[in-house]
Amino acid sequence: MESSKGKILVIEDERSMREVLKILLEEEEYEVITASDGLEGIEQVRSNPFDLIITDIKMPGADGFEVLRQVKNFSPDTVVIMVTAFGTTESAIEAMKIGAYDYVNKPFKIDEIRLIVKKALEKKRLREELSLLREKFQSSYRLENIIGKSLRMQELFKLIPKVANSSSTVLITGESGTGKELVAAALHNLSPRKDKSFVTINCATFPEGLLESEMFGHVKGAFTGAYQSKAGLFEIANGGTIFLDEIGEMPTSLQSKLLRVLENGTFRRVGGTSDLTVDVRVISATNRNISEAVSTGQFREDLYYRLNVVPVVIPPLRERKEDIPLLIEHFLAKYSKNAIRVSPDAMNLMINNHWKGNVRELENAIERMVLLCDRDILMPEDLPADIIRTRDETACLPELDSGEVDLEKILEKIEKGYLLKALEKTRGVKTDAAKILGLSFRSFRHRLHKYGISRQ
Prior knowledge:
By secondary structure, the protein is an alpha/beta fold. It folds into 4 domains: 7-132, Response regulator (Rossmann fold, 3-Layer(aba) Sandwich), CATH 3.40.50; 149-315, Rossmann fold (3-Layer(aba) Sandwich), CATH 3.40.50; 318-394, Helicase, Ruva Protein, domain 3 (Orthogonal Bundle), CATH 1.10.8.60; 407-450, Orthogonal Bundle (Arc Repressor Mutant, subunit A). Helix content is 48%, strand content 14%. It has a 5-stranded parallel beta sheet, sandwiched between helices. A 5-stranded parallel beta sheet has the order 9-12-15-8-16. The chain has a two-stranded antiparallel ribbon with strand order 6-7. β3 (52-56), α3 (64-74) and β4 (79-84) form a beta-alpha-beta unit. α6 packs across α7 (180-189) and α13 crosses α15. The longest helix has 30 residues, at 110-139. The termini are far apart.
């Protein structure tokens, strides 16, 4: 009979056991095919797709281990459950090594085999769903490891290939953790320079003198410790792309030297006397407001305009919440060897979390949860403490669905409620009630008058 619950092959040389399993599984609305020995079972596997196979181990012709090997060769996604009346620890270990899902000793309980089959098929379906999600990421919602289906991310996906084909400078702006380096790498990998070097440097991690040496190199004896000449990253990136992360932190003394490279492609090593020429595309990024730094004199205006020929803005995660489920599934697949899913409550909490650290914070949270969770489903209690705390702090608040909220009235209602509770607890003794609320008696009496509370 046809059924959407799954197609199962039972391979068993004992007729009575074969028929029992067939009846049992058909009662659960599975489609069941049977085979009386290992060779017949292998032929069935070669000619028909099965979701799950239950096979005895000791059979004439071909034993269960040979069946298992053939199944993993012809249909690696098919789940195999081994059953035997002559079970040993060694045979169980061998079966699991070859790829069996489970190993069951005869005689087994009906409920036991029913539950094992149900869980095995659920796990198989979950793996298939995750596989489809990964394919969906690759085809529709990702570009060079950047994931998203929101309108702003789709606009970014359209922009990147256009910008990649030019040699214009690009300034990527966005909060920390939004994926600025991923965008820079995508611009390089989709460009005509993709076969050349992609060099990155974080301008905030080096002191001024060392940053200049890292970028432009130095000659022997240029400073204490310069025992030999060294090529800078601009030389190494010649013909390719250099990514200057945290460009807003670059010292003003270096900004003029970077401007010179952008204008004519030339620079000098620290301590050098001759110019070097390079052909390098510059992509920079910052989480600062560079225009404000220009207005305060912390960043050169002419350099800003040179860097910002093509601006690329990456939205924070809280402004593209529809991307969060996709990112969660991606990180689950990255960090979990098993098929782990997220409960609706936990998913809702993560979607509505602020994520100050953006995608980086979300990835770290998923990695930590996968590591610590011993179930195949992530629950709210598995979430990081700060997410749970935010949930607890807002659980009793009214929803902000539409319209304006009169915060003053809400606070007055809360204050009046605590005044009444304190009086009730102290049976109307105002001095004691004031102490409970941490108020002076004068302040307490003023509040009673404010809300028209007149208890003796």
